[in-house]
Amino acid sequence: MAVKIRLQRHGKKNFAFFHIVVADTRAPRDGRFIEQIGSYNPNTNPATIVLDNERALAWLNVGAQPTLTVSKILSYEGVLLAKHLQGGVKKGALTQEQADAKLAAWKAEKAAKINAKKEGLSKDAAAAKKAAAEAEAKVNQERAEAIAKRKAEAEEAARAAAEAAAAEKAAQEAAEAAETTEA
After folding, report:
1. Under CATH, domain 3-79 is a member of which superfamily?
2. Alpha-carbon span 170 to 164, nearest angstrom
3. Residues 6 or more apart whose Cβ sits within 8 Å of residue 43
């Protein structure tokens, strides 16, 4: 029986997440499986991976073949490096303590990279939010200036109309006074 470590699709349309399963190659993609060893959610940034590293390593050691995507996930999680280091220990190239130290150093470096990415994403989001707030404030300022300008023009027009009305009234009174003096 050929065994593969592969992804099993779950979730809804355009929002899938996957279970990482060990299954017979003849079984349907979302059908029967031997063991579920983790999950993978590509909808988050960075992608969320939950994996039982010991079980994955055990299945790799007994000959299970990962699919291309799962092999990338296993590499990302350090399972393939652990398998490689175990091969070195079996050959006598290095001791178990050295292999464990190399794996721990690699995991620490990987965790630092992931944290740096998360911090970068949060800083970018904060910078985008700040830029949007500044742009909105600028637009609001321009609108307020335009409204103030229109209001000043309306007041100026009202003042000019009032002065014109007052001048017309004064001219009318002067004309009436001239008529009364003539009469």
Report:
1. Ribosomal protein S16 (3.30.1320.10)
2. 10
3. 15, 16, 17
